[in-house]
User: Which sequence fits this backbone?
């Protein structure tokens, strides 16, 4: 495989799909050496097949706003790869959603899901619908309209969506309700469901909790203790909330959260009812963190700035792709950050990620760190298939075990002398599993 050839061909075919090209480039560069040890992969054109989604579904979504005016959005589902299991991955509702972003997310999801040890293929979906400032009724009408078109492509053994940015328990409930109505079936076709109708305990916490189990293991392996470390978290959604909860429980001190409007620095630590307040802020639907500083004296709001300028021991991007750039990485390195774990998907730009690896920093990529979310979705699918539900303790134990296994796979495939290159480890481990499954199933 010649990486530059595949990349330039892709670039020509999909000009302007920057996020997708960025995600592909990172994986290609990581797996190139092992790929070239397997001439059968080259003959089977595994890489050329992997970068082309199985199929992309795009559709019109028409819904009525509270003034009675019709609105038109675009919906998508990118069914990327089902070599190891049914398509699985979240749905994102955000004004920025486009095909490049959903292809990058679906591509990443394929390898992430392979790392979880559970049988799930990769997919992603969403819409450029912006939930910001929308009423409950508008959100409900949009979710129902979105499902009206998508439902035929879904099923418990076909494609199982879940939440992502802009899609939480409320939206999953509305989409699942409509799915159930149209399909006349109550199956596990959606994860992140409410507890009363097939949801799993701990799914809301799982992405953040899993990320902290992983981070803790990285630190322990490097001879460091998470207790009393300061942590910068970005974002203030579901993932940031779970990360703040578990980081605090493990004895670390979370000093930042952020929103599109800027970031909050709270030197006393964001713990207890301050973490609960994140949920309140989120449910206001305004998508701003500034009110935190009014509510909690001693904290400061910095408008239009990112938390990476704060000197901290641990940095956890929990908001969105490319939220930590090269300059941010330099600043963190200058400030002697001990560990950076991407919790958002591709939270670091290519330049930032390269700087961390070149400087042999303790750095891990989203597809390993945040896999606890989809892994717990996999556990929800198992519970649904068995028509039973596990206790929180049982789910937590399994999540712990899965995160350890992902860490182990990264160490095994990412060891470079005494440095663990987690980016390479995660990419190679995920890729090998998918590639072997594709080889065994023939050229389809
Ligand atoms: O990026 C992700 O892994 C998710 N948004 C969760 C996907 C899922 O199917 O639970």
Assistant:
């Amino acid at each position: 495989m010649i990486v530059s050839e595949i990349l330039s061909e892709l670039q020509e075919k999909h000009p302007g799909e920057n996020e997708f090209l960025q995600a592909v480039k990172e994986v290609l560069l990581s797996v190139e050496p092992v790929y070239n040890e397997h001439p059968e992969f080259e003959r089977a054109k595994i890489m050329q097949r992997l970068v082309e989604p199985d199929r992309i579904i795009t559709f019109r979504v028409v819904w009525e706003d509270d003034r009675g005016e019709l609105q038109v959005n675009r919906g998508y589902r990118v069914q990327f790869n089902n070599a190891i299991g049914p398509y699985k991955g979240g749905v994102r509702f955000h004004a920025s959603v486009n095909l490049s972003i959903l292809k990058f997310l679906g591509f990443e999801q394929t390898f992430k899901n392979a790392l979880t040890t559970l049988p799930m293929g990769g997919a992603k979906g969403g819409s450029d619908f912006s939930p910001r400032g929308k009423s409950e009724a508008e959100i409900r009408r949009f979710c129902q309209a979105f499902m009206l078109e998508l439902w035929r492509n879904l099923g418990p053994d076909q494609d199982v969506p879940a939440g992502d940015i802009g899609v939480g328990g409320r939206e999953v409930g509305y989409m699942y309700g409509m799915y159930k109505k149209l399909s006349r079936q109550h199956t596990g076709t959606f994860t992140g469901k409410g507890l009363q109708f097939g949801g799993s305990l701990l799914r809301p916490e799982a992405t953040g909790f899993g990320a902290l189990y992983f981070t803790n293991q990285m630190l322990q392996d490097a001879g460091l203790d998470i207790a009393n470390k300061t942590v910068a978290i970005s974002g203030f959604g579901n993932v940031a909330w779970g990360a703040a909860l578990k980081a605090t429980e493990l004895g670390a001190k979370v000093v930042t959260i952020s929103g599109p409007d800027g970031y909050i620095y709270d030197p006393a630590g964001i713990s207890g009812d301050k973490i609960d307040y994140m949920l309140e802020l989120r449910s206001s639907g305004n998508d701003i963190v500034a009110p935190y500083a009014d509510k909690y004296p001693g904290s400061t709001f910095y408008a239009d700035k990112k938390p990476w300028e704060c000197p901290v021991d641990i940095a956890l991007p929990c908001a969105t792709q490319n939220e930590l750039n090269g300059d941010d990485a330099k600043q963190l390195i200058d400030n002697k950050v001990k560990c950076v774990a991407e919790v958002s998907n591709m939270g670091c730009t290519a330049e930032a990620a390269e700087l961390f690896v070149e400087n042999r920093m303790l750095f891990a990529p989203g597809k390993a760190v945040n896999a606890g979310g989809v892994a717990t979705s996999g556990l929800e699918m198992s519970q649904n298939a068995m028509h039973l539900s596990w206790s929180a303790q049982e789910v937590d134990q399994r999540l712990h075990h899965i995160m350890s296994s992902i860490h182990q796979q990264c160490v095994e495939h990412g060891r470079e002398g005494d440095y663990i290159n987690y980016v390479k480890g995660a990419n190679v481990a995920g890729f090998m599993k998918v590639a072997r499954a594709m080889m065994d199933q023939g050229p389809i």
